[in-house]
Design brief:
Blueprint: E1 9-13, H1 39-51, E2 56-60, H2 70-78, E3 83-88, H3 95-103, E4 108-112, H4 117-123, H5 128-141, E5 146-152, H6 160-167, E6 174-179, H7 197-207, E7 214-217, H8 228-231, E8 250-253, E9 258-260, E10 273-274, H9 280-284, H10 291-294, H11 304-307, H12 311-314, H13 319-326
Parallel strand pairs: 1-2, 1-8, 2-3, 3-4, 4-5, 5-6, 6-7
Antiparallel strand pairs: 8-9, 9-10
Length: 345
């Protein structure tokens, strides 16, 4: 049935080119892929997203600003009424980029900042923290809503209080905390990706009501502790994790046109088709596509998730994080409701 699944959001990697090659980069950013989508192809993708009713697109890299036609792509989306955000490491940010972002009617920009200066620079390169901080200040000062995304691993997770002391002095609208997944560079560089999830939840609980911005955890941390309804950055108390949305309401597209349910499902196993050979609507409405979620039933749950009273609601947590941590799609490897949440390397 073509109306059963309605596409609401998309994460679109428009290039893999990046000025960094971070040890925990899940996509192994650095060099652009061979034969990335052309400008004309990207404009067609934007039209296809709009035709499917997609309401929000997040553009990622690599580093988005290393693609010369990024502004053209943004305008193709915002000109069709699609709310468009952009995620950057902030290293290449300039006043000229600020003006172009405003002209393209970008909804917001998220800057990656993965800890205080010493740990951030150690995992990226010297000076990257100060450049990211300067980008935050320039964006907020220029009237563009700006947020921070922090990817946690064993070394930076204990430093959240220090980073919070820095961020609370800046006019952000949101800070999202997410778990590093052992994929891409993080799978081969020796990054100790595990951290104490319960300690992170306690940190968010301690500050979420007094923080001067929305403070929350991403969908690969949790689930269903006492304040689940507030932990995802919505102080209404209703922001409950309802299971992985890959292929149900959201889709991922990479820079050569491969379509996945989520751009964090960075394995060829999850490619549903390519936009150079199939239209996005044909992939989205394919009755065999995204079967790991569209055909989910609670009896697929394994481990502690199978007997958990919330298992049918959270559906075993984040598919991507589960897959890359232990290969079991329907069993959370670090659920805060069980003892594995503090399982550190």
């Amino acid at each position: 049935m073509r109306t059963e699944y309605r596409l609401q959001s998309c994460v679109w990697e428009i290039t893999l080119a990046c000025c960094f090659s971070c040890r925990y980069c899940g996509s192994k950013g650095g060099r652009a892929r061979a034969h990335e989508l052309t400008t004309a192809e990207c404009l067609d993708v934007a039209a296809q997203l709009a035709a499917l009713g997609c309401r929000r697109v997040s553009l990622i890299g690599g580093e988005v600003f290393l693609r010369p036609d990024w502004e053209t792509i943004v305008r193709a989306l915002t000109g069709r009424g699609i709310r468009t955000t952009l995620i950057t490491n902030g290293f290449l940010f300039t006043p000229e980029l600020l003006e172009r972002l405003r002209g393209a009617e970008i909804e917001s920009v998220a800057v990656s900042m993965d800890g205080p200066r010493a740990v951030h620079d150690a995992y990226r390169q010297p000076g990257s923290f100060d450049r990211a901080a300067a980008a935050l200040d320039a964006l907020s000062g220029g009237g563009i809503p700006v947020s921070v995304i922090t990817t946690l691993h064993s070394e930076n997770a204990p430093l959240l209080e220090e980073l919070y002391a820095f961020l609370r002095e800046r006019p952000l609208f949101a800070w999202q905390i997410q778990a590093c997944s052992p994929m891409g560079n993080a799978a081969t560089s020796g990054v100790r990706y595990r951290f104490d999830a319960k300690a992170v939840i306690r940190f968010v609980e301690a500050h979420m009501f007094e923080a001067p911005f929305s403070l929350g955890i991403a969908d690969n941390i949790g689930y269903f502790t006492q304040r689940e309804g507030w932990l995802r950055g919505d102080l209404s108390g209703e922001a409950v994790f309802g299971g992985c949305r890959a292929g149900l309401t959201t889709v991922g597209i990479d820079s050569v046109g491969n379509v996945r349910g989520c751009e964090s499902m960075y394995d060829d196993r999850f490619i549903e088709g390519n936009l150079r050979t199939r239209r996005l609507a044909d992939i989205w409405y394919d009755e065999n596509a995204f079967a790991y979620n569209r055909r989910f039933t609670p009896d697929l749950l394994t481990g502690p998730c199978r007997s958990c009273p919330y298992g049918s609601l959270c559906a075993g947590g984040c598919r991507s994080y589960n897959y890359f941590t232990h290969g079991k799609l329907y069993e959370s490897s670090a659920c805060a409701r069980n003892r594995t949440a503090s399982g550190r390397d």
